[in-house]
Amino acid sequence: MLTIERLQAHNQTNVLNLSVLDAQKAFVGDIANIIEQSSTQSSVSQWVIWYDSTPVGFFLLDQSYSSRYSFCPQGSVGLRSFFIDQRYQGRGFARLALEQIAYHYSTWLREEVGDLYLTVNCKNQTARSLYLKLGFNDTQRLYLGGEAGPQHIMCFTSKREAKIGL
After folding, report:
1. Number of neighbours of residue 32 by Cβ within 10 angstroms
2. What is the pLDDT along the chain (166 residues), one digit of tens a residue?
3. Domain count, the chain
């Protein structure tokens, strides 16, 4: 069963063993650096994707994404550094995890938050296609500040806004 939980100190060693294929490193980075850099940011929470008792993926939820990126409206949340470990790719874990993230992120953050934003490298068409299939919208704008090149800006409309028809 796939579950998602906040990163805890007692399981950090297992999570540090997560990695992506060499060709994906430009899009994601190194898990140790991601954890270290995000741990000093109070508005960023670290999340682990588990399959039974095995960590299979990781991501960040950034509640100050709008202050970092002008394309993100105030109150929206950023999904950052999402990845599935190379040993577990191709098993549908990314799809299952993203479905949970998209529908539960505001509950996990225990706040009324806006839409969920992310960027995906223009070279990473596999990831972009998956996001589109799961209900993320391509804003038709590009973020040009990515280290690995231009990135599509994508948005998942929050349940709160969808309910009131915005």
Report:
1. 13
2. 999 999 999 999 999 999 999 988 888 889 999 999 999 999 999 999 999 999 999 999 999 999 999 999 999 999 999 999 999 999 999 999 999 999 899 889 987 888 999 999 999 999 999 999 999 999 999 999 888 899 999 999 975 444 433 3
3. 1
Which domain range does residue 32 map to?
Answer: 2-164
Instruction: Label residue 90 left, alpha or beta by phi (over 0 means left) and psi (-120 to 50 means alpha).
Output: left
CB contact at 8 A, 68 and 24: no
How is residue 92 annotated by DSSP?
S
Q: Give the residue among 15, 110, 107, 100 at the shortest CA–CA distance from 53.
A: 15
The whole-angstrom separation of Cα 33 and Cα 3 is 24
The dihedral built from the CA positions of residue 127, 132, 137 and 138, taken in this order, carries a sign that is positive
Number of Cβ within 10 Å of residue 116's Cβ equals 24
- Which amino acid does the sequence have at 101? I
| pTM (predicted TM-score) | 0.90
Where residue 47 sits, what CATH number does that domain have? 3.40.630.30
